[in-house]
Amino acid sequence: MKKVVIDGNSLTLEEVIKVARKNYKVELSEEAKKRVIKSRSIVDNIVENDEVVYGITTGFGKFSDVTISGEDCKTLQRNLIISHACGYGNNLATDEVRTAMLLRANALSKGYSGIRLETLNTLIEMLNKGVHPVIPEKGSLGASGDLAPLSHMVLPMLGEGEAEYEGKVLSGKEAMKKAGIETIELVAKEGLALINGTQIMTAVGALALYDGINLVKISDIASALTLEALRGIRDAFDPRTHNIRPHKGQINTAKNILNLVEGSSLITNQGEIRVQDAYTLRCIPQIHGASKDALNYVKERVEIEINSVTDNPIVTEEGQVISGGNFHGQPMALSFDFLGIAMAELANVSERRLERLINYQLNDLPAFLVKHGGLNSGFMITQYAAAALVSENKILAHPASVDSIPSSANQEDHVSMGTIAARKGRDIIRNCERVLATEILAACQAIDFRKDFNLGKGTKVAYETVREAVNFIEEDVVMYKELEKVQQLIVEGKVVNNVEEVVKVIY
Fold first, then answer.
1. What is the chain's Cα-based Rg?
2. Backbone angle region of 406, left / alpha / beta, with phi > 0 → left and psi within -120 to 50 → alpha
3. What does the pLDDT read at residue 65?
4. Could you tell me the domains of the chain?
5. Exposed, middle or buried, 430 (CB in 10 Å: 0-12/13-18/19+)?
6. Residue 58 vs residue 427, higher pLDDT
7. CA 386 – CA 392 distance, rounded (Å)
8. pLDDT at residue 70 greater than cutoff 70
9. May I ask which residue range the UniProt record assigns to the signal sequence (predicted)?
């Protein structure tokens, strides 16, 4: 059985993808089980002794000064979930929901949240049996965590809300029954433990990051194809230039380009055709490299966050209950804003290379890469569409993290907007996929106008992968269908995977 064992400390981005998109089963480690049981015993003692402790025997937010009796604790936890489930908008995708469930389970398995083991096991059983709560994507301020969307995640556990099961959206109660999972009644601290965390923003952002890593590799492949199509100059990628400005992403990008075009007869030397290329060709290492360095930073932040305790209060190993602010999404908000900006730049430069491919005033190719121009428009409007996506990305790249609106009667007076940052980053990446697909298709079209050439070791594989799906465009066709084919090759990883069989593309 393909499975991922969670212990709260060692989950990786690659394992997240296995669970989210490849349906690996999830199993709790034995050590994690012991920690969860110990943490719960501390909470039980607090309730039995009628101690006044925030989140256990008090209300929440501004109601933290309202003491709740032991017999009302169950009602308090249920009320917390149903009152906080007020999300709005399109529903999160299934892989985003699965990731959120996994990350919440992993955080709870660290043993600082006071949840019962059977409650945690219910969440894991839902994940393993494919009961996916319906979660609207909007409604989180990113502090106190992702309260509204995570409440929607919990509803089916109580027999409420809705969930997707076997391809159908059912009531939460019916989905749990069909999957053979018992619904539960939450007890003291459990509702807050389940919803007070950053798992929605981190889930959306982590998946976007993974897709972004694939796209930075695609961007190098696309630019290498364009470089060949335009008879670009190899000298700008000489390692001697990059070693004296040793940013890792820049050095790796220059290496990638040289490796991808190795053996190409289209690539030229300085002065052979022209002395310099335009910035969008000559500065590929500097531009792409900066985005790669940004993604490496974000990946480091994400892998810290997916193995962190992000709820409040925490129950320490010594039996103390500490009220703090680990639910605050600021570390992720800044990171996902950075992710969006980095990916928007890859689309920006790709669209400018697309313009150089189709604009006959900037190259020696047929106008808009088509025979019989005038009768045929060729790639003319592909640049319009790409430009629209790039412009939209510029709007989306405005940082969400610079905004804050006080909540809970000003008790929670600074929030992160991290979930908005994550969703914007995801949307930028979707747009970036299409822009890069457009550049790749145009580059392959331009290459076909060249005569008697050899492509590079890596670009030849990329070109052949595209040509297996899309033919040379002799006369106008329904263009969006051709672009969708190339975008699908990118999304499925076929371009990168095929190229990496002969050339390792590093980021």
1. 26
2. beta
3. 73
4. 3-197 (1.10.275.10), 205-309+344-499 (1.20.200.10)
5. middle
6. 427
7. 10
8. no
9. none
For 386, the 3-state DSSP assignment is helix
Active site residue 54: yes
The per-residue DSSP string of 236-292 comes to GG-HHHHHTS--HHHHHHHHHHHHHTTT-SS-B-TTTS-S---HHHHTHHHHHHHHH
* CA separation for the pair 123, 156 (Å, rounded): 10
Residues contacting residue 409 through CB under 8 Å, at least 6 positions apart: 61, 62
Model pLDDT, residue 505: 97
Q: Which position has the higher pLDDT, 378 or 51?
A: 378
CA distance 80 to 387: 46
Catalytic residue among 24, 54, 210, 297: 54
CB 338 within 8 A of CB 294: yes
Please check whether residue 448 is in contact with residue 365, taking contact to mean a CB–CB distance below 8 angstroms: no
The beta-strand segments (E) located in 130-193 are 132-133, 136-138, 162-165, 168-171
Nearest-CA neighbor of 186 among 135, 110, 113?
Answer: 113
CA 319, 322, 326 angle in degrees (round to 5)?
125
283 pLDDT tier (thresholds 50, 70, 90): very high
Dist CA 218 CA 462 (whole Å): 10
* Cα-based angle 12, 15, 21 (whole degrees, multiple of 5): 135
3-state DSSP assignment of residue 373: strand
- pLDDT digits over 289-302, tens only? 999 999 999 999 99
pLDDT digits (tens, 9 = 90+) for 102-124: 999 999 999 999 999 999 999 99
**Average pLDDT of every residue of the chain:** 95
